[in-house]
Amino acid sequence: MTSQILDILTSAAILYVVAAGLLIVFGVMKIINFAHGGFLTMGGYCALATADLGLSPLFAIPISFLFGAVVGMVVERLIVRPLYSRPLDAILATWGLGIIIGQLITLIYDRGVHFVQSPISGAVDVMGESYSQYRLVMLVVAILFGVVLAAVLHGTRLGLMTRAVIMNEDLARGLGIDSGLVRFVTFSLGAGLASLAGTLITPLSSVDPSLGISWLVNAFMLVLVSGSSLVSLGIAAVVLGGAQVLISSYANPVYGSMAIVILAAVLLRVRPQGFAND
Amino acid sequence: MTPALDIKGLSSGYGEALVLRDLSLMIQPGEIFALLGKNGMGKSTLLKTIMGFLPVRQGHIQLAGNRTANLPPYRMARRSVAYIPQEKALFQDLTVLENLKLVMPDTAAIKAELERTARWFPVLQKRVHQRAGTLSGGEQKMLLMVRAMLPKQKLMLIDEISEGLQPSMVDAVSDVLRTERASRDVAILLVEQNVPFVSSVADRFSVLKQGEIVASGSMADADASAVIDRQLSV
Fold it and tell me: Which of A193, A209, B196, B202 could form a disulfide with A21 if both were Cys (CB 3.0 to 4.6 A apart)?
């Protein structure tokens, strides 16, 4: 029972970390960034490159965030910004970009599967059950993600401007807020977070050019049912991630892997705003 | 004296449809100018065009002698223009303080402004941590006025502020506008349908009909109200 509760919490934590970057980009820019999967993959390969250089796996964390953020800056400036007024085209462009990132990685590395050593290995005893230390660390990381993002959104001027742009972009512009700059920062931050998430999940998953694709679908569904709220994302991750764990345990892992997509679709049918308040 | 706002031959609209045609007007610093007209005549379109939300098709707009046509709205706000739109003018889910912080990061300056304006809008000081969406309609208008005055802009564009306000609040808004004009030479462009309010506060007026100015004059003219009433009733 303890192990199942921990599985639910840590699976939710991993989903939260993976989807957070996608959510903030969607909240501000009102586009689903389908390059998110590519950025996740990039983060996985940052971890691999760091290991190849003989550096501690911990170095991969800042490296992948910075690399993702810089790539995000370039992508926003060259690809997404010219398509602000054509959101559907912007979504298609990010989809294409995700494919290009996967192909570039294949050119640089190969199609093979790689494994990266975990910075934290082994198990700890939790209420009599032996449990993966790394999964527990991911729980702490997810809470840190939530706290830091909430602190930025609610405790800084950038956060206030970002919330204003999310609520009413025209009004924000009329008050002197450069919403283009807010979008630029948000997209770069979202790309950095995605890349960081890619690095963080590598000890739990193999690294290959399609690493991000499988995570992207679940992250996309979570964002659809969360609107632009980090709290809603947390609830969605626990509910849908929990359902995935339970269905995998009691029924079949294949059904479990489909749980998030199906439950999210049903939820949106019944309650179009999903877990969001409005 | 350089006009605070100088518009010449302005044409503007939405998509292919022209709403404003060859419109010209000039407002001096310290002047309150009222633009009157029924719904759909282009009053709000003019304010949106000045602010850069809509493109200038023809003509030009100058702020304090500098051309501004087609600058984005955030640049207009940074060039000392305060804009109060008629609808969706507040961030309903932000607190009163957060709404004000968007135009003035300094909390001490906000509190000083709330103190200064307390004689007209005393309730706002008690509601700084309340969400704007939970304020009454009148209180929301108070917040809009304080937000527009806070950054000490040189030009204020105000879209139908008196709509739905009880008479005592309309009087308070009139008093605030006159005080602002006298104390720091701000130019104010009021878009209105409320003739008594405009008569009590404006220096000059124009009446807009189907995107064109059809009458103009000074509010001090003996027949100003009659001219306005005649134009609005047609």
Answer: A193
